[in-house]
Amino acid sequence: MLATYLTYENAIMALPWALNSISITAAYCLANSKVVVGRLVALCGAVGWASYGLLIGELSFFFANLFFFYIYASAVYKFNRKRDQYKVNLAQSEKENTELRAKLEQYESNANRELARRQKNVLKLVSRARADLDELEKAANLHLAPLQLIPVEQVTVTSDNKEPTGDKEPSCPISPGDVKS
Questions:
Q1: DSSP assignment of 23-72, as one string?
Q2: pLDDT tens across 24-38, in order?
């Protein structure tokens, strides 16, 4: 019974259905972002259709599907080459990122060190200023002689060559009659 179905003619009749199912599978894989798998399945389908053309004696089938075989094989090759190049570029960019992060950390540590040094200098200046203020407070608390202002004379000059007049305090507050001899 099975031998009657496994004839050459029945296989030739069923082969297009099998090849169409391979083509449908390839289209499904390509539509669902399985590019390499879809192209490999389509490559198998092209080989199947080429063999079908040889089996039925149609060389046009054979040559047309050899052309499709070339298209799918070159697409798989180009896709793999681009994917490998992407991986290399990704590795290089990650390496550059780690180098840039290391430089950034170095610059950040240098900036933090410089900031700490400047803060330390500012704190020294603040402590010196506080010490000077404390000394001034102690001097004020000890009632040291206050600073006296030197009186400023207001002098007016006249045009007739007389002595200048002005609010002038006597240079000597003691008069000559006050001195006892």
A1: HHHHHHHHHTT-HHHHHHHHHHHHHHHHHHHHHHT-HHHHHHHHHHHHHH
A2: 788 777 777 787 788
